[in-house]
């Protein structure tokens, strides 16, 4: 039960962070995605620091949840960041949630409950991962991230602003996959906790996790600026738990139910996917858009 509570609290912190970061992103040009100009502009906005604090708290709660529970349980619960973001955003941006949003939130809740009950993930040992699993898994994960980023970069947003949606979607997938890798490395680091704090601090996964998390944050900020959030949100929300579950089952040997249990589990996952797609098109995700596209050497002013 503690695992579920911590995961839900992490989703709440991430939702608060998303709203604060989106507020900080207002007025910044979409063409600054994948650019250090974006980071420099955000560093001048105090609300962005509050957003970073929120995601840091969520990160710590997620790490604690992973220290006591399975990766295949914790990460799917984090998809609740999306409906929680909408609910909080409705208060911050003074926009009312309609029946479509509430039904989707209920659908996600039921779908997640069915999926977790039917799969019943258990077991797993991040310390017992075979020597070559880490480099192979990290290599494959980064290859998917790089493919998504490269595909997004082919969209010339400065010349054709309508391609911002494709870039946002690709960068959203890249950020989600990178955060999935971060969660796997986090699980590997916290699994050393039984040997003491020193073992955690000297584990290579801890430092790889920090580098992966920073990279994921960079892709996330770029996705928020590349195009409309309704393009970025589905890939971001779904790729993170998908990659994390794959790490949990394939690398950490977490056990899930087999046989006919897979049919309702797949139905629950499908319900989550449909509800995420519906929520991602909520007008609340577009209340603060569109952002201007400016000449390359002009100066952003607030």
TrEMBL record:
Protein name per UniProt: DMT family transporter
Keyword Ribosomal protein recorded: no
Top-level taxon in the UniProt lineage: Bacteria
PANTHER family cross-referenced by the UniProt entry: CONSERVED INTEGRAL MEMBRANE ALANINE VALINE AND LEUCINE RICH PROTEIN-RELATED
Organism of this sequence: Streptomyces silvisoli
Listed transmembrane segments: 47-68, 102-120, 132-152, 164-185, 197-220, 232-253, 259-280
Lineage, uppermost ranks: Bacteria, Bacillati, Actinomycetota, Actinomycetes, Kitasatosporales
Keywords: Membrane, Transmembrane, Transmembrane helix
InterPro entries reported for this sequence: EmrE-like (IPR037185)
């Amino acid at each position: 039960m503690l695992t579920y509570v911590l995961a839900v609290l992490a989703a709440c912190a991430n939702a608060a962070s998303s709203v604060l970061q989106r507020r900080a992103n207002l007025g910044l040009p979409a063409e600054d995605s994948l650019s250090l100009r974006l980071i420099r502009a955000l560093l001048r906005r105090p609300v962005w620091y509050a957003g970073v604090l929120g995601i840091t708290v969520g990160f710590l709660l997620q790490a604690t949840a992973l220290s006591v529970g399975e990766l295949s349980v914790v990460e799917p619960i984090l998809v609740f960041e999306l409906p929680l973001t909408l609910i909080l955003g409705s208060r911050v941006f003074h926009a009312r949630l309609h029946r479509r949003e509430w039904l989707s939130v209920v659908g996600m809740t039921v779908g997640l409950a069915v999926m977790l009950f039917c799969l019943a993930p258990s077991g797993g040992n991040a310390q017992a991962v075979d020597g070559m699993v880490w480099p192979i898994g990290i290599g494959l994960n980064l290859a998917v991230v790089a493919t998504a980023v490269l595909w997004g970069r082919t969209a010339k947003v400065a010349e054709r602003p309508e391609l911002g949606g494709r870039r946002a979607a690709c960068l959203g997938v890249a950020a989600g996959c990178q955060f999935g890798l971060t969660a796997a490395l986090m699980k590997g680091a916290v699994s050393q906790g039984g040997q003491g704090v020193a073992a955690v601090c000297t584990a290579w996964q801890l430092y790889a996790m920090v580098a992966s998390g920073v990279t994921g944050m960079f892709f996330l900020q770029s996705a928020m600026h590349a195009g409309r959030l309704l393009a970025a949100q589905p890939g971001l929300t779904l790729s993170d738990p998908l990659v994390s579950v794959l790490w949990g089952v394939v690398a950490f040997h977490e056990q899930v139910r087999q046989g006919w249990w897979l049919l309702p589990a797949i139905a629950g996952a499908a319900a989550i996917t449909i509800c995420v797609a519906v929520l991602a098109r909520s007008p609340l995700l577009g209340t603060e858009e569109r952002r201007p596209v400016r000449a390359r050497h002009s100066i952003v002013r607030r």
